Hints:
Largest sheet: 8 strands, mixed
Strand order of the largest sheet: 1-2-4-3-5-6-7-8
CATH superfamily: Alpha/Beta hydrolase fold, catalytic domain
Structural class: alpha/beta
Amino acid sequence: xxxxxxxxxxxxxxxxxxxxxxxxxxxxxxxxxxxxxxxxxxxxxxxxxxxxxxxxxxxxxxxxxxxxxxxxxxxxxxxxxxxxxxxxxxxxxxxxxxxxxxxxxxxxxxxxxxxxxxxxxxxxxxxxxxxxxxxxxxxxxxxxxxxxxxxxxxxxxxxxxxxxxxxxxxxxxxxxxxxxxxxxxxxxxxxxxxxxxxxxxxxxxxxxxxxxxxxxxxxxxxxxxxxxxxxxxxxxxxxxxxxxxxxxxxxxxxxxxxxxxxxxxxxxxxxxx
Length: 273
């Protein structure tokens, strides 16, 4: 169930490595921090934010190169670089303990961040996240080859229209700036699914995993494998809802996230973290 009205506040800004970083910060209570996919922005969670209103503190971060965050806020594009960026933001916001949520390609960043700072990340939520092996979209999208070609000036111009068509054909907005499509390609090329699989196996925090069976980008079998590989936590499987379940199932996700996030902080408090 989707709320009638999305929550879309004016972004706030901080600076990392001298570069602007935009984020939204709503509500009170245990902090849930959301990382969007590729391409994407903090606005991808506006329906979930509405469903969570008044029950958690919900922080949404624009990742480097997206929304209002400058690419220079991170040292690079691989998982460790983006995980370090997330930890820098949490530090600047004075957050010593959070639950981290990653949607789509934000999932591998969330897992990498949790492994780098287990004392900071109480638990992890993965929505429509890539799994332990390449899914159909990665197989169809030759990110590494395209990233190489995009580095060649004349070829970059030739690829502009085909890339726009390719992204539109799988459901992304036609209004996305071309530079965001280029950055998406480069970041996808820098994301190692093998490294992500190793990070999942090393993960120790409780993990919520959610997906829809009719996701057109990632196969059901890959989601199921991810669910079996992750530490114990809720497994939410929707018959319909597509890839953007943070919108199509915002209400149901909120009803599961709120008690689960609160429980993570209650456990941390009892254990002395």
